[in-house]
């Protein structure tokens, strides 16, 4: 086997491979032998079928397997000799292999661009000091009390208004039949909170307790029930009762009974510590992004097109999953796949640029992802998703996701190393807000210009 390398671009290579006839024949013979050992052919004992019969009967499969096996052996050998690691999948182009004839094929793939990173140790970066306001603590206390609220019936003969809790029966009808079982009895909701369609709430607001009515409702095009999406249907409703939510007072007894704290002050201390830690992590992430952005601004290198497209596709798939979790389809956004991919291209390019830069730093520093770090990742993912860590790992293996995962973890290690060696200067939140205001004013002036 012989090969030549062609640089299509700084990030794309093509290898042309020439295989002599004796090697192709040996590969086909090996495949025939494997089929002969396991094939069942009427009139012959297993393993005793003549090779000529095996080759004639299974020729297409045998030649395909021989070709695939031979190319895979060559790829491992060539990549090892060249010392290169393809960034994404390989494009292998070949014609049918034939016995005793020279076999030629090409391998196309992308590689990381070569560039000299700027100085990345000792870089100065500002990081916001975490501060927790009384308003933030109060908002948590408010949500805590709201979660403990109980509803009480109002003895009032009036129609409901926003803020009232209502108990209703309702059903959607097509003719005289309830549509798709869309109905509920004694369904409670708070008016004015967007918990139901506006037209439905409008109907409820015309009723007093004990009254019934019906109205035609127009369902939005992205409604979760696709049969109703973009259509109109009759909805019948009965108002059973008006209610109000009654919250307990914030006392030591309340937080002991429902929050597991010894006192209100103990709960407030925990809230502040939790908020502060969250803000600290956010400030750390923002500082790391500033560091990375400042370093990326000092270098320029070409981006592998296939890798960018892969990231675009991944972002669109994440968008699809978010839409489905909301009960909506990707098509409800009103954009074609081509338009969505183009919308996400700038973000994908930023992702690839950051990944390649951090990968170069990791290589220069000799950083590696060790097996315990992989196990820790799957354990964290299992805890977040409620799935089994072994099953998640198997899924990643089956879907060729382990290599991208290692690259991501390696990039994270490189970023942590850069941050650990940075000169971090803490600033007050007010200073950070002033900086952001200045950025906004500059952007506004540029826009006006």
CATH topology of the domain at 2-110: Alpha-Beta Plaits
Q: What helical percentage do the residues reach?
A: 40-55%
CATH homologous superfamily annotation of the domain at 2-110: Trigger factor ribosome-binding domain
pLDDT < 50 runs, ≥5 residues: 440-449
Q: What is the name of the CATH architecture of the domain at 2-110?
A: 2-Layer Sandwich
Largest sheet: 5 strands, antiparallel
CATH class label of the domain at 2-110 = Alpha Beta
Total number of beta strands: 11
Separation of the first and last Cα atoms: 63 Å
Radius of gyration: 32 Å
Description:
- The structure is a single chain.
- With 449 residues, the chain is an alpha+beta fold.
- Among the domains are: 2-110, Trigger factor ribosome-binding domain (Alpha-Beta Plaits); 150-246, Chitinase A, domain 3, CATH 3.10.50.
- It is 50% helix and 20% strand.
- It has helices spanning 21-38, 51-57, 59-82, 134-147, 198-204, 252-259, 264-296, 305-325, 337-365, 371-385, 389-398, 402-420, 429-448; strands at residues 2-9, 12-19, 91-94, 103-110, 124-128, 150-153, 165-174, 177-190, 212-218, 232-246, 423-427.
- Helix 7 (264-296) crosses helix 12 (402-420).
- It starts with a strand and ends with a helix.
- The relative contact order is 0.10.
